[in-house]
Every structure is written in C-alpha cells, then in structure tokens.
C-alpha cells in the first residue's frame, strides 16, 4: 500500500503569539514543530506499513525540513518538499500538493484534521475534491480491509459514524486516534540516509487576502490576584457566598 | 444576494445551527433571498420549521439520502446550485458541514472559509475567524468570485427575524454511486459517572501535565462533592475515561460550579461548558481564552494554588 502523509511545520499555539503589524505575526516568539494533528497522521501511516508493507511518503509545503526529517526518523520512507509560501491560504497549499501527489500516485493519503496555527481544516478536504477521491474527516480509527478502508469518524456529543471507503482515498485524522511514537536516536541516524527531495510546482494565485489580524476581545472574568494563600481564601469565600460549601 | 443555507438534521432532529445560518443569510442578503436546503429521506416537517426563517426552502428527498454521505449530499447540492446559481452558500461548521462544504466548494471553484464568526459583504466577502486556537483573530478578504462557500461557527448568529417562506420540492435525485459507504452510527459509551448531571465539576486540561497529577483534581473534587472531567488532550492521553470529556465532541455540562484547571479555553471545549452557573479558571497564561468565559480568573500555576486550596478545604471540612 502506498501512503502519502501531509505534514505541516506549524507554529505552536502555546508559544508566544504577537503581532508585528496589522497583517503579520511576529515570528520571534513562535515555536515551530510538526503540526499536532499530523503527528497522528504519520503514526497511523507507519503502523499500516508495519502491518501490511508498502511505502510511506511524506509531503510538506513551505519551510518544512525539520518536520519532514522528524517524519523520516519516525519511519517514513522518503520525503518531498514543495518550497512555496502559501501563507494562510489552504487553496494554494492544496493545489500545490495536488500536482505532486497526482504524479506520485497513491492508495491512501492521510492528513491531519487541521493545522494548529490557522485551524482552517481545509487542505485535506479541498485536496480530496480536487483529486476526486472519496474521503472522510476527523477519523478516530482506521482499518485496512480487503483493499478498502474502514473508519470511524467523530460526530458531536461522543457519537461516531462508521464508514467504508474504496481506495484510492483520503483520510483526515483526529487527535487521539493513536499514540504517536517518540523519535529515537536510531531513527534519526537512519533518517539521514533517506531521500528528502525538493520539487517545484507552479503555485496558483491565492484566494485569501489577509486584511487584518488582531487580538480577540476577552477578559470577561473578574481576576483574583495575590499569593496562593490569598487566592485560595478568595475562592473559598466565593464558594461559600454561593452556597457551594 | 441569493444566500443558501444548508440545514443539518442530526439524529433525527433539526440542529439549531440551521436557524443560525438563516439568521446570517437574512442579515446579508440585501434585496436578495435567504434560501434553506434540507436533504434527507422524509424532511417535510423540517422544511416547515425552516420556512419560518427563510424566504425559500428547497427540499431534496430520496430514500438513499436518509443517512449523510458526503458524495451523495454534494451531488444533490451541486445539481441544485448549478441550476439556481447562489452567490453565497452557508454550511454549519459541524462535523458534517466541515466535511461536506469543501467538496462542494472545490467542485464549484468557489473560495471557501471555515469556522467563520463574522461576515461582511460590503465590497466582496470579508470573513472574520479565529486562528491559533482562539488566541488571535483574522479578517480575510476572499478573492472575487461568482459564488462563495462558508462554514459558520455555531452559537454566533443567534438573533434574527422570522419570515414566512415557501417550500419547494427541488425534485433532485442523486446521480452518483458513492465510493464511501455508510455503515452506522456508534453511540457514546456510558460510564459510571455522568458528568452532564454533576453539580460540581473539577475539570483538568493539558496543564495538568501528567496522569499522576489527576489525583490532585480527584482530591479537590472529593472535598467539594464533585466529579472530575477533562479537556480533550487529557482524554486523548488516556488520563481520564472518554465519557469525562467536556466539549463539542464530548459532553455538554451545566454545573453550579465549573473549576477549569490548566485549560486554554478552545472553542470546542467552551461550547461544552459555557453555560455553567459559576466558572472559575486557573491558568498561567494571562491571554488564555478561558478568561473570556470564566466569571473568575486566576493567572497562576495550578500546582502552587490547588494544593493550598485543598489544604484549606480539608481544614474547613475537619
Ligand atoms: C473537531 C474538534 C473537536 C474537538 N472537541 C473537543 C472537545 O470536545 N473537548 C475539548 O476539550 N477539546 C476539543 N477539541 C480540542 C480543542 O480544540 C483544544 O485542542 C483542547 O480543548 C485544548 O485542551 P487544553 O485546554 O486542555 O490544552 P491546551 O490548549 O494545550 O491548554 C493547556 C493550558 O494549560 C495552561 N497551563 C499549563 N501549565 C499550567 C499550570 N501549571 N498551571 C496553570 N495553567 C497551566 C496553559 O497556559 C494552557 O492555556 C476539539 C478539536 C477539534 C478540531
């Protein structure tokens, strides 16, 4: 089975998010790593390969060397980097990937449900539409059965939907589908000899124009300050006033 | 503008987000129309409900449409849209809407934006959305096109006027053979503790750092007479059972007290707890979005504050 995994090198929402100006992020406080949802995607692909054989190819768009190397160290066979800057525009990213994966061929594409930075949840789904393959999103379990892919996908309120897809198809995975492995020293050593190829594609014109970035209006809460002792006293007082103690 | 809103029927009921889409449609349509689309096996009663908020309701009925299937649903929608030429199409940013909308957009060559919380139609379509899990917002101008697709966050467009629309049977049947087969719906597991019934919830997020630290929350919950729940990463990591997850894909809770420890306050979590009577949040990040829903907030390290709180409660309880 030939599996293509999409992996994004993305800023961690837990790092310091500041604006440089109205339209740009200040990159200094940002910590980049493999997009959290893509960790689950690469893990799932490697597990399928370990069970059934085949090949895992990981594809990254833009500055993605560190993330692609990480995926190689986890067990991907080779990596393809598409060196364009798609910014926040999922249409550009998906179009660029389409060119590459069409030429590669595949049985299964696994992508993360969304990226942790822009939260569009669109690259995988748009790509499925562009490639005209069946797909399922927010997948929480996946099994290969007689060349078909049986999945459960997440609905609201703890409900799940079970579905079977014919291949070639595309899946976006939800967090919790597996427990991603750590990158071992052996893995890192082995990754050095694996192929990381750069391919050029003609990036299409984007459809998003960022007009403004800003901090959301928050701070509805009344803030409790002081030493831990004072804070605990104040919380207890609030609970008492409400008859909760 | 002709604004089409694709309604959602989930588990045999019309999801209220469908009406929210129509509220948005009515507010941006100008001298155009708000038009609902409802798809399923037997959707007459849903169409009537929707007609209270739309100028037109399009009914697409077929036995094969009883269960949601993205290929079948996209096919019938595209047949309708190719004929009716909408200017703007709205989907809920639900599990299904978020799956279906991009397929429709890619076939119509329409710019799409997801999880939208604001729409401005002055000179083209401008949308507002959150990025970085709620820490920043961005306004995006979508490139000029004949048609646009948006998925809309639930709970945002709650206010609207009533209309009295007409119901039209679109007379459309699916023409494709789907390559994805619907197998069934799996119901949530039932555990020993039903957090949706609890009066007091001590809820932990990724800030709890490790399974062994859950004890701290257990101890606090015991002293307060409550139960322990958690955000998604805590459940994904296996630190708490699945039925303890609060949020859009977990449970909705409405306790008298919701104590949020080390939870950032992502939208998907907040949707499950925002109606709690009293929300107190402890988080070391002063910018954490949880402070936007909490009544009381503490900026600080939960590992410094919670043990002191436990100690004091132990004294009170003797
Ligand atoms: C389709 C979909 C469905 C989802 N459904 C759900 C759902 O049902 N429920 C849900 O919860 N999430 C859900 N999520 C995930 C959601 O988007 C967030 O990722 C998740 O809620 C974050 O959990 P968290 O706040 O615990 O972790 P994080 O976002 O990692 O936040 C941890 C917080 O802890 C704070 N912290 C760290 N250490 C300490 C300390 N020592 N003291 C105090 N504070 C500290 C940090 O400042 C941070 O704010 C869903 C996501 C998607 C895409």
**Helix/strand class of chain A:** alpha/beta
Structure annotation, total helices of chain A: 6
Q: Which residues of chain B sit in consecutive blocks of at least 5 with pLDDT less than 50?
A: none
CATH topology of the largest domain in chain B: Rossmann fold
Quick one: overall form of chain B? elongated
Biggest sheet overview of chain A: 9 strands, mixed
- In the residues of chain B, how many domains can be counted? 2
Got a strand count of chain B? 17
What is the CATH fold-level name of chain A?
Rossmann fold
CATH level-4 homologous superfamily of chain A:
HUPs
Query: Percent range for helical residues of chain B?
Result: 25-40%
Strand order of the largest sheet of chain A: 11-10-9-12-8-1-6-7-13
Mean pLDDT of chain B: 97
Q: Quaternary state, please?
A: heterodimer
Based on the structure given, which CATH architecture of chain A is correct?
A: 3-Layer(aba) Sandwich
Q: Can you put this structure into words, describing what you see?
A:
The complex is a heterodimer of chains A (245) and B (318). Chain A has a single domain, classed as HUPs (Rossmann fold). Chain A has 6 helices and 15 strands. The N and C termini of chain A lie far apart (60 Å). The mean pLDDT of chain A is 96. Chain B folds into 2 domains: 168 residues, Rossmann fold; 123 residues, Rossmann fold (3-Layer(aba) Sandwich). In chain B, the strands form 3 sheets. Chain B has a 9-stranded mixed beta sheet with strand order 9-8-7-10-6-1-4-5-11, with helices on both faces. Chain B has a 5-stranded parallel beta sheet with strand order 14-13-15-16-17. The longest helix of chain B has 16 residues. The N and C termini of chain B lie far apart (67 Å). At the A-B interface, helix 4, strand 9, strand 10, strand 11 and strand 14 of A face helix 4, strand 7, strand 8, strand 9 and strand 12 of B. Flavin-adenine dinucleotide sits at the interface of chains B and A.
């Amino acid at each position: 089975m030939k599996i293509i995994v999409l992996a994004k090198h993305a800023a961690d929402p837990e790092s310091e998010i500041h604006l440089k100006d109205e339209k740009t992020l200040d990159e200094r406080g940002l910590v980049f790593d493999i997009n959290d949802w893509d960790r689950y995607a690469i893990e799932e692909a490697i597990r399928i390969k370990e069970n059934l054989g085949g090949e895992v190819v990981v594809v990254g768009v833009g500055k993605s060397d560190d993330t692609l190397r990480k995926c190689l160290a986890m067990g991907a066979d080779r990596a393809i980097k598409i060196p364009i800057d798609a910014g926040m525009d999922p249409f550009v990213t998906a179009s660029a990937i389409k060119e590459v994966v069409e030429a590669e061929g595949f049985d299964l594409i696994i992508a993360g449900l969304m990226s942790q930075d822009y939260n569009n949840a669109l690259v995988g789904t748009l790509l499925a539409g562009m490639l005209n393959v069946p797909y399922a999103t927010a997948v929480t379990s996946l099994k290969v059965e007689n060349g078909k892919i049986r999945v459960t996908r997440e609905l609201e309120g703890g409900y799940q939907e079970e579905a079977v897809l014919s291949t070639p198809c595309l899946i976006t995975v939800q967090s919790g589908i597996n427990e991603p492995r750590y990158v071992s020293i052996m893995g890192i050593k082995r990754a050095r000899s694996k192929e990381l190829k750069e391919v050029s594609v003609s990036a299409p014109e984007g459809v998003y124009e960022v007009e403004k970035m800003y901090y959301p209006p928050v701070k509805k809460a009344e803030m409790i300050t002081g030493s831990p002792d004072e804070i605990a006293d104040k919380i207890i007082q609030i609970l008492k006033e409400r008859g909760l103690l | 503008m002709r604004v089409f809103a694709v309604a959602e029927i989930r588990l045999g009921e019309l999801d209220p987000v469908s009406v929210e889409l129509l509220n948005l449609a009515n507010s941006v349509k100008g001298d155009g129309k708000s038009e609902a689309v409802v798809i399923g096996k037997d959707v007459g009663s849903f169409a009537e409900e929707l007609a209270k908020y739309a100028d037109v309701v399009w009914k697409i009925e077929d036995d094969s449409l009883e269960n949601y299937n993205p290929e079948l649903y996209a096919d019938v929608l595209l047949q309708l849209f190719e004929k009716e030429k909408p200017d703007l199409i709205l989907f809920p940013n639900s599990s299904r809407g978020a799956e279906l909308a991009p397929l429709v957009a890619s076939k119509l060559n329409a710019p799409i934006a997801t999880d939208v919380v604001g729409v401005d139609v002055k000179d083209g379509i401008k949308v507002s959305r959150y990025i970085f899990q709620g820490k920043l917002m961005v306004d995006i101008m979508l490139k000029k096109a004949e048609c646009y697709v948006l998925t809309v966050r639930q709970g945002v467009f709650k206010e609207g006027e009533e209309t009295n629309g007409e119901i039209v049977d679109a007379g459309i049947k699916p023409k494709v053979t789907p390559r994805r087969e619907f197998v069934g719906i799996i119901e949530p597991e039932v555990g020993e503790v039903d957090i949706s019934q609890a009066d007091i919830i001590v809820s932990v997020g990724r800030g709890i750092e490790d399974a062994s630290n859950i004890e701290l929350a257990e101890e606090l919950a015991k002293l307060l007479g409550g139960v322990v729940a958690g955000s998604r990463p805590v459940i994904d990591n296996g630190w708490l059972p699945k039925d303890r997850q609060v949020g859009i894909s977990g449970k909705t809770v409405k306790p008298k007290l919701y104590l949020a420890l080390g939870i950032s306050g992502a939208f998907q979590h907040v949707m499950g707890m925002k109606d709690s009577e009293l929300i107190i949040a402890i988080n070391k990040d002063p910018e954490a979005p949880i402070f936007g829903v909490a009544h009381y907030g503490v900026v600080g390290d939960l590992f410094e504050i919670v043990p002191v709180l436990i100690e004091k409660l132990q004294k009170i309880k003797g």
